[in-house]
Amino acid sequence: MVLFKRKPVRYLPHPQIDDQESDVWVIAESNEVFTSYDAYLERMDFFKSKRFTCEVSGRSGLTFFDALRSELAGSREIDEAFPQALREPVLRRVQFSTVSRIDNLVEDVFNDFKNDFYPGELVTVILDDASRLNGRVRDKAKFAEVKGQDGSVTREAFSRYFVRLIDRPDEEALVDDNHIVRDRKVFTKQMLRSFIKNTVTREGWNGAPWLVKPEIAERFRIDTNIPPHLQHSNKVAAKKAEKKRDSEQGEGRKNQQAQHQQHVDVHMPPPYHDHYPPQVMHDPGLLPRSWGHMQGPPPPDWDPYYRVPGYPHYMPPNGHYYPPPPMPQQQLPPRVVAQPPPPPPPIKYPIDDLDIEPVRDGTHRPTLKFVTKKQCSDPKLSSHIIPGLKLETVGLLLETWNTLNVYCQVLKLDSFTFDDFVEAMAFSSPEADCELFVEAHCAVLKQLVNAENDNGGAIQISLPDLPDPDEEEEDKDDEEVEESKPPTPTPEPEYPAKRTRSSLNKVQFAEPEPEPEPDVPMVDHRAAEMFVEYGWVERLQKRDLRDGGWELVMVGLLHQLSGRPRVTRICNEILSHLAPLDAEPTINTARIQYSTMDINLRAEALQIICQLFLETKTVKNFLEEMSNTMTHYRKIKIEHQRARKEAMARLKELQIERRLLAPEPEKSPSPMPELEDAMESTKVDDEDISIPDSEDDDPVVVRSLRRGADRAAERKRKREEEQERKEKAKEEKQNKGSKEYQKVLKQIEKEREKIEQAEENIIIVDGDLREADCPRTRVLGKDRFCNRYWWFERNAMPHGGLPDSSTADAGYANGRIWVQGPDDMEREGFIDICEPDKQAYYRRFQMTPAERKKLEEGSTNLNSAKEWGFYDTAEELDMLIGWLDSRGLRELKLKKELNMQRDAIINHMEKRAVYLAPREESEEPSTRMATRTKTYVSDKTYRCLRWKNLSALAELGHRHVDPLPKPRGRGRKNASYEDEKVTRSSTLSAAGGPVNRQGKPVTRQGTRYNF
């Protein structure tokens, strides 16, 4: 806006015009209206005076119109030049700032943003080879600093950016702060200064905050409610209160001093001259006194503060003044001091996640990956899409895979990866079977009905009844009986209250309403015709599952389950494909139709029988056994913890004892033996020396004493003996202390080994407890928008699957962090809130919860519990941990759990990446396979074909799909799957059971669970 004397020009308000026919004069640039021509001319003269300043460019000495045109041109230039991605962050940084000088404000903002980049911004990426590529920031993630236990910073805070390269449209670069820069001309201090001056204003009083212009704040949804402590009225009130408080403190000090003087009880004797009568003094002839005959001095000029009414103001002859006599205490009215309102209490974190101020720096949750085409909008992430997979099927596949792996011991199934399971569910070939797909169905079906030699083939689940022909005949008989009964009299028609001839005719001749016909469900399949002679229960009891047998059992089971209203629709949909009306109701039809059924119906069918499996008594017994096992493991863990505690206490005592027995360092260390010998030899040589004369060149030999050398040798020998005796005594003393010291050191080492062993045992028991925790799958946590995060390997299964599985070389089970959207109740309570709550939330944060969810989650949103996404790289996991805010209740728990499990999650993510990497041709030699009976499909094309059910071969001697082995004759052996048994036996221990990497049995409890 145009400035006049450094203040914005104030425009005149529109006048009240009563007569609509009167003439008015308008200044279009300022939108001012005048009813008087003189006022109009006066205003125009003021606007044409060259006393205005352009706020954007800072040019002064302009007319109002020139300054306005300069501002518009400068604003247009700034809007075109300043980066669009930086506008909102800069404005939010400047809003309510109290830095008075704009130069200092520009300096602070520039330092904050020169190394910070935002999505949508054009940048330059510096590669490792120092080459530079232009790109646009697509995504940004901030990582907070990590501090150690001692408070030191182990990792500085940093950011990572996904940059789409302009010259390489199909490539992206993941860079950090050190490998990304801006163009120097894009973000400069001069440009930033112009942008700030163009978009913010500031009032003239001292301490006024910078405020974004209302129209710009509305466009970027920036809060314009000035905080109370920054408002001018509050500032003025605070200054007045401070002055009043200072004055009251001064008056209080004066009042306290006066009250102190009034309360001083001084008992002074009367002046000494009062005891003597007055005497007349003769004038000694000097000059007359200036104030008469020895009269008292004039009263002193007392300060009014010290004057007391009724006190005689005179000075005694000795020249000393006395304090005034005490006055009766006066009751002063109490003063009421206005106390400023207390500051709001500090927020005690953690609080609800959605009550935390939104982060508006451009960061959002890492981009999710999807497996359905409906959710994936980015073509670059389409490599994870499963063809034909529906949105609702993802949860069914995860639930079914988790159930089969958790209860793999009950089902006698080898563990398998989720990727192999999905590939097996989508595998379709009428000539080749996928063993993983077949064995999963057969293992579950065999748990629903016992074999005919096991408890008479009892059914382990409750099934609805099928309609019988006899019941239909009984229904017909009941209908005939009802027809033979006398007819029920027809009720008389109701006549209206006001009867007329026409109304009576309408009632009498009205046709009766037709009775609604009962809805007869249309059957669009021929499932019932497949079991005329041989029922599915009998087939399952006899374990006749080969060559389409288990597919026919599935048809019969689903046909009978269609009587349950909850699954009627989906059962009929599956049966319409397995037993269509245009195909013969034979076992071959069921086999062919099942091989061509899509993955969605397959997942529905397998999930239905898995739900039935969870209702069996076998699962209940298994869960009880797991509960008892967990109790046993907890007791073992307590014992290890107690042993560790005792060892630590003993170690503390030994450390004190070690410090007491530690040898003290010698204060005056003895010289080295070599130095002692040199000193002795020097002394001996001094006994017999030649002293050269200062005058004569020839030395004069001094005659030594008799036997002087012998005496010197004797003294040397005695000194050596004394030194040896002292060293020996010292060594004995030191050896005695050293033995005890060494003994303590050995005990300390033993206690440390005990502590390490106890900690290792605790870790092992914790792993056993985790694997035995089967009742339910535990979620990692929820984020601020109630999205659930799952790591299915967290409990109830080994992290990498069973170590003796046929695909144990994969080294992982699922290898992904799965994200599930919020359910309906959570969405209604946290996101889709009522209108009053939505408005209150908008006034607080300038956005609704739904808008915040869309902003902070980025382009990949999950709107319901049926929608799933995942992360499968370490970078995405770290970015997720950095995005979570530990000030929120939900994200605090989730972040803590992710940090605890981070290493294990990343380890199995990396193993999954290695397992799914395309294998080279030379990696595995090709083997010759017999293909006379079935078409051979290479396991290099389909990894799921590598899976073999070795658990069933080891425990049953055959696969689930194979019939029960016949009793062997004398002298003959069952040669079926002998090769697989030999291969399996090579992995067993000497005790006859499989062992894991620690040498323990592979089961969670140490033994197989047999039923």
TrEMBL record:
Subcellular locations according to the entry: Nucleus
DDT domain location: 391-454
PROSITE patterns: DDT, WAC
WAC domain span: 22-129
Keyword set includes Signal: no
InterPro entries with a match to the protein in the record: DDT_dom (IPR018501), WHIM1_dom (IPR028942), WHIM2_dom (IPR028941), WSTF_Acf1_Cbp146 (IPR013136)
Disordered: region residues: 225-268, 322-345, 458-521, 656-740, 960-1011
Biased composition, class Low complexity, residue ranges: 329-338
Biased composition, class Basic and acidic residues, residue ranges: 239-254, 656-667, 707-740
GO cellular component, one term: nucleus
Acidic residues bias locations: 467-482, 674-699
Keywords: Coiled coil, Nucleus
GO biological process: subtelomeric heterochromatin formation
Full protein name: DDT domain-containing protein
Species assigned in the record: Phialophora macrospora
